[in-house]
Amino acid sequence: MFWRILRKSLTTRKNHFAVAVIAVTMGALLVAATCTISLNIKDKISRELRAYGPNLSILPITDAIGRENGAVFASKGYLMQQDANSIIGDPDILHMSLVLEGSINVNNQMVSVKGVKFEDAKQIHPWWKLTGGIPENNNVVIGQEIAKKFNLSLNQPIVLSGNKTTLDAKVAGIIETGGDEDSQILLDLDTAQNLLGAIGKVSRIDISVLSTNVAVENKGLELEKKVPGSRAKVVQQVAHAEKQLLGKIQALMYFVTLGVLVVSLLSIAGTMTTTVLQRRKEIGTMKAIGASNKEIAKLFLAEATVFGVIGGLLGLLLGYGLAQVIGITVFSTSVVLPIIVVPLTIGCACIVTWIASSKPVLQAVSVEPAITLRGE
Amino acid sequence: MIFRMIFKGWRFRVKRVALALIAFFLGASLIASLLGLYLNVNDKVGLELRSYGANIKVQPKGGEFIDESQLGKLKEIFWRHNILGFSPYLKIVANVNDQPVVVIGTWRNHEVKIPNEAGFVTGTESVAPWWNIQGSWSQEQGVIIGSDLSKQQGLGIGSNVLIDYNGNKVSLPVTGILSSGGAEDSQIIAPLQLVQNLANLPGKVTEVRISALTKPEDDFARKDPNTMSAKEYETWYCSPYMASIVLQVNEVIKSGEAKPIDQVVKAEDAFLSKVSLMILLVLIVTFIASGLSVMTTASANVLERRTEIGILKGLGADDKQIASVFLLEFILLSLLGGFFGYIAGIWLTKLLSIAVFGSPMAPGLIILPVTLGISAFVAIAGCIIPVIQAINVEPARVLHGE
After folding, report:
1. d(CA B395, CA B316)
2. Which residue of A236, B73, B232, B320 has the smallest Cβ count within 10 Å?
3. Domain coordinates of chain B in residue numbers?
4. What residues contact residue B45 under an 8 Å CB cut-off, 6+ apart?
5. What angle (nearest 5°) sits at the alpha carbon of residue A245, between those of residues A243 and A99?
6. Angle formed by the axes of helices A14-48 and B262-303, nearest 10°
7. Single pTM value for the model
8. ipTM of the prediction
9. How many helices (H) and strands (E) does chain A have?
10. pLDDT digits (tens, 9 = 90+) for B97-154
């Protein structure tokens, strides 16, 4: 009997049903979409901020004095490349680049060289501007200052003399970075190791740590232990700004979500109240033919639950879909649905529809049927 | 007549009118606050991104040095308020304990004199805010020393460091240890004037770094200024694009050549456009969803009044009159709700901005008309379908309750 009344009540007044479900769906959609985005935002933003370059470097413990103006003052220490390989595949490391630095002789002048794997280096320093191409067959890329100093252009020959070996190479590219590289010569890592007599050695590992799940400092301490004879150094310029920015963007999204949550729940409540208000006559009729207050309340709450569940589920699906669209459009990666969003959305939808429909019902049951039916 | 009908009606249906008004108010406040956020987010996040430090580098043009005296003019260019800070550097290689060490002269917080205006305090604190200094660096006669160098040479706070540059010697107390993760970790940082005296280069610097607030590059910014018409050039010159600020810096620092620091500029442009795109998409989703939900409230409100429509018809009102009563009533409600929603939305955005960014947002004038327009549009869209439905039904049937 109860179920029949419920079914009839929902199916005969299609307009009423549509209005209620649309209102709940839209509210739930906003809740689901904004919650999904704000719970994904930290990961997305920290990936985007990796465009500022590496935030951690791993150096040999003995290498106390760094580089300056392209000239290496006292680069004593090395790390072993095979030790460095042991940290490949760490889930918190987005990109890493092995670097070997040293000096060689070009036209009887000392020039600083840097051996890197070009694919890795370009990924970790996305602002590098390379004219020409990535070198093959022992060819080199020269910094723009070097090109000016030695008056070199693309495809011209250049002779690099190390302590024991000499390399006849061609200029495959000219690079502009705004950093040390402008006055350096860049070679493939293997070529550089041969030329500098440092087979299997690197002088630094540049790392882009994804700070979603771990603080950069702590990751540094962890990696230090994995690579023997190394120490980790946080690149403060990048890491410091990132930490501040992450917190702010996250706070911004949380506030937006909170605002959207409050407003959309209130507007679900508003619509539900409107639709229930208009049914006072119906309540009067039910009372007149002998329905108890409890039965009436049960019917209305059951209806509210139907709206809450259907609208909540639809809103969840649509909202997640929209969050996905936003994630892909803005950040070119998909968002994951945090499990908490599922109960949150449906729960909010149900609770709000219950509260919204209980108040007019309570009012209505306390009214005399005769008065309600007359329309007062 | 029509207004009398509407206002009389409101007096008898206070609760329902209030509900519709609240729906418009809530929808409008959400739209207004997100719109305010969208219009301001570039400025606010742009300012936050300046914690990555300098984005323009000036290096000597032709000669070896830049004149320090030209720096004050940076605060006289058209976009002077967008120059958030700058700091000169003089780099020399000196002997410290028989070892070559780079010594850099610069400012921490230095007051630059500007003609006809109050001085401008700037230095590495604004262009290199990430410098992590243990101890302090306030003394005119003290230096800070890079953390690696301090370990290697066994120098700590309080010890004296003897700097020898081509026979000119000076002994200075170490007042702080600097760790930055960059080249500074193996350098000595000293007050600019002191290094200038030591190197006998008064008033000379080798590099200037500037932190400027810029507008992300768009298609217009990528045009070559030389091919622009006079009017386009004026617009370009008067927009805070990186290229136009660099041009203006070059106009005042004659001895140097300014260049954007690509690492910072490129990442910043990409980041800003992504964040504002994200807010825009959230705004669009919110607009559609809350628009639909306000629309349903309006529909529910009209649906309930079908008997009223029947009576009006029975009394001889034609369809046009009925439709105009309802439309007008809802447009009035939407404008009223929209206006208060606008006020609440602006206030919310202000709160949010103070909480997150520490400064209020500028309320854009465009927000009010847009919010009111959207409100009215939603009101019309929401009541038009049920009104048409009700009009098309026979009065007798509507009154009958079918």
Report:
1. 10
2. B320
3. 2-47+270-400, 55-260
4. A245, A248, A249, B271, B272, B275, B276
5. 55
6. 170
7. 0.83
8. 0.81
9. 12, 14
10. 788 889 999 998 888 888 777 888 898 988 998 888 888 887 677 899 998 888 888 8
